[in-house]
Amino acid sequence: MRRILIWSGVAASVALLLAAVLAYLYVNGAYRFSYPDAVTYPVRGIDISHHQGEIDWKRIAGQNIRFAWLKASEGGDWTDPTFARHLAEARAAGIAVGAYHYFTLCASGAEQAANFLRAVPEKLDLPPAIDLEYVGNCAGRPPKGKLTHEVQMFIAAIRAQHRVTPVLYTGENFYDDYLANDPRLAIYPLWVRNLYGETAWSHDHPVLFRQFASHARLAGISGPVDLDLFIGTKRQFAELLAHPP
Fold first, then answer.
1. Fewest CB within a 10 Å sphere: which of 55, 178, 211, 234?
2. pLDDT reported for residue 8
3. In angstroms, rounded to a whole number, what is the distance separating the alpha carbons of residues 72 and 244?
4. Residue 140 neighbours by CB distance under 10 Å
């Protein structure tokens, strides 16, 4: 019995050590959970905000990064102070750019749309993206119908000015709570967060982009960065740029 207990303790210690090593490698960008096939998904990108600080966009472009989502705004009154600089530098490096807005649960859709349009008055290469998630959001949880209405108000304002259909960024929990089986939002394509493999939870909802890694490391960015891919071929991506939804 004593020997069994000793071996059990050793096994637990080894498991904890292995978990700690994997966590260290993950946080430092040396390991991730998913490695999508580059032949099937050849168009890769990143999403960034002020958290990434200074970026050498020419070095980023040299690592087969074809597009970048840049955070433009959040809620009804905050704008990312690095947006304009990143926009100009990414474009100069030949990277297709898009802007995203972090949608808070405690401000109206019209108010948030006005904030986004002040930051992004003109249409960019990629359609605008609306970030719908719980992380860092308001504590309150509006009823499903209320949130849908506010998102629709945001979308209506964006479409009126940019003449383009936005993309909805989300993860599984938020999707299940608010977007699943909602015909009013099912017509808008998704940009999904899934770090573990192919996305199954989005069902028949059209998916254009997938965030497949966080804490990744790229030359030209001093800290971690999210990696994304386009669900399609290089030709289809070119068509998206030429004729956004």
1. 234
2. 58
3. 19
4. 8
**How many C-beta neighbours within 10 Å does residue 232 have?**
18
Decide which of 14 and 71 is more confident: 71
Alpha carbon distance 172, 167 (integer Å): 16
User: Which pTM value belongs to this model?
Assistant: 0.86
- Does residue 28 surpass a pLDDT of 90? no
Structure tokens at 46: 């990143």
Tokens 């909805």 identify what position?
168
Can you read off the two tokens belonging to residue 176?
A: 């299940």
Question: 3-class DSSP state for residue 165?
Answer: coil
Question: Any idea of the CA torsion for 75, 76, 81, 83, to the nearest 10 degrees?
Answer: 70
Give the number of other CB atoms < 10 A from CB of residue 98: 26
| pLDDT bucket at 223, cuts 50 / 70 / 90 | very high
Residue 195: strand, helix, or coil: coil
**Residue 220 near residue 57, CB atoms below 8 Å:** yes
